[in-house]
Amino acid sequence: MTIDCRPVDYANSVDANNLVELLDDYAKDPMGGGSPLKPDVKEKLVRAMAERNDVFSFIAYEQDEPVGLVNCVEGFSTFKAKPLMNIHDLTVKRSHRGKGIARLLMQAAEDLAKSRHCCKLTLEVLEGNEVAKQAYVNFGFKGYELDPEMGKATFWEKPLT
Fold first, then answer.
1. Is residue 9 very low, low, confident or very high in pLDDT (cuts 50, 70, 90)?
2. What is the torsional sign of CA 8, 9, 15, 16?
3. How confident is the model at residue 154 (pLDDT cuts 50, 70, 90)?
4. Residue 36 DSSP code
5. d(Cα 27, Cα 60) in Å, to the nearest integer?
6. pLDDT tens per residue across span 33-63
7. Residue 142's CB: how many other CB atoms inside 10 A?
8. CA-to-CA distance for 72 and 157, rounded, in angstroms?
9. Top-level class of domain 3-150
10. Stated pTM of the model
């Protein structure tokens, strides 16, 4: 089994199609919301990503079959006055889980973050996703807190229309 992580070239149609296919597969999974990507999102996603200079992706291939994806977005830490790298999406096809592919994708994200002088990697994970949480802990992630008495940070959202 040879698994190889490659950066995505958003201008390459094969890379673009593989990215959309993997993200759609993730979206259909209960941990990704359980619904496929909308057709308009599929159509404009890669072009929109390519227009940004703070979005990066890697695809894991097993013998040229795309089996995993990580999408990263660079942000900024005001407390460190340095960039940070957020792992926005991390997915491995169900048929290929348990082979260390997520670890390879996280390592690619970490290597990218280090090359861009980021102070940390961040990600969000659903409370009930125990398998992913264990993988993240094994890779060195932990809950974020400023003061133990105040507890760990939680991720909230407010959708905008």
1. very high
2. positive
3. confident
4. P
5. 18
6. 999 999 999 999 999 999 999 999 999 999 9
7. 8
8. 19
9. alpha beta
10. 0.94
Do 60 and 103 meet the contact criterion of CB atoms below 8 Å apart? no
- Helix axis angle for 101-115 and 130-139, nearest 10°, is 50
3-state SS string over the chain?
CCEEEEECCCCCHHHHHHHHHHHHHHHHCHHHCCCCCCHHHHHHHHHHHHCCCCEEEEEEEECCEEEEEEEEEEEEECCCCEEEEEEEEEEECHHHCCCCHHHHHHHHHHHHHHHCCCCCEEECCCCCCHHHHHHHHHHCCCCCCCCHHHCCCCCCCCCCC
- Percent of the chain exceeding pLDDT 90 equals 88
Q: Where are the domains of the chain?
A: 3-150
Res. 1: pLDDT tops 90: no
Confidence of residue 21 (pLDDT cuts 50, 70, 90): very high
Other Cβ atoms closer than 10 A to 127 = 7
